[in-house]
Amino acid sequence: MIKVAILLYAILLYPDGEREQQVISWNLPFQSYQQCQTFYLQNATNLKNGVVVHGNSQYEQGMTLTEMGCTKVILTGNGEIPRDDPKNRVVHYKRGEGV
């Protein structure tokens, strides 16, 4: 059975300025991009701060948020790790840009 979920994603930059880490919020699925965007806009500051705290504790101190938004993930149920396709991302925050 194939399911589609709209989820928040973030891209964190390691302190070396070269490596990136993608984070997807699996615990907070949305039915549509609009629902995801509304939630993001209502909670942007907490979401951005929270993902940096998460990155610093899970990966490495000094992580920087470079991008955040909503993405579509296809869950196939066949044991494969679900991933998003960058073409399905709707960016709501990009470091250095007003999105």
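That was protein one. Protein two is written in the same sequence-then-structure order:
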Amino acid sequence: MYVLGIISIAAIAIIIEKYMHFRKARKANVLLMDMIKDCSSKSEAQKMLEEMDDTAPLSSLLNQLLQIESNDLDLINQSMEAAAAVELSKLERGLTWLSTFSAIGPLIGFLGTVIGMVRVFMNIESHSGGGVDISLLAGGIWEAMLTTIGGLVVGIITIIFYNDLVQKLEVLVQEMQDAGNQMIARFKGKDEA
């Protein structure tokens, strides 16, 4: 049960951190796009991006896009995909642990149950000469089943939050792709003002 407690605390910390991180990233992306909409030229947008901090995951993508001098869409897409992969790995940080916790929580619970049942059978064997006390059996089985319940609770709750966070990440990535496409349409192929 101690291991399940540690996993629960770690999972809660990751869940809270990821929700806060995604909320902050989304707000920063929206603010960034609003600021770029006010830019009248590519150079003005580049200057604005250089002056901003990089709290918006979108900033490195847009900066990469604006650095490309070519209008070759294949080159632009490759460059954007490379920048997006870097930002995506930052956004995904911690989700692998959450997925792992959701998988091993029930397994640790079942392991606790098996260990508890082994103890019950060892008690039965040690008391086999004088009969078996049913309360001794019931107490051991009850204790063993608690670890299964704990493991399942950790696994179920963690997988629910993991799936919600993955969905939020997918929405954030889609918004970043849309913003990149808007920037390509807006600034690529236009002469500098």
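Residues 120 and 163 are 38 Å apart (CA to CA). Keep this in mind for the problem set.
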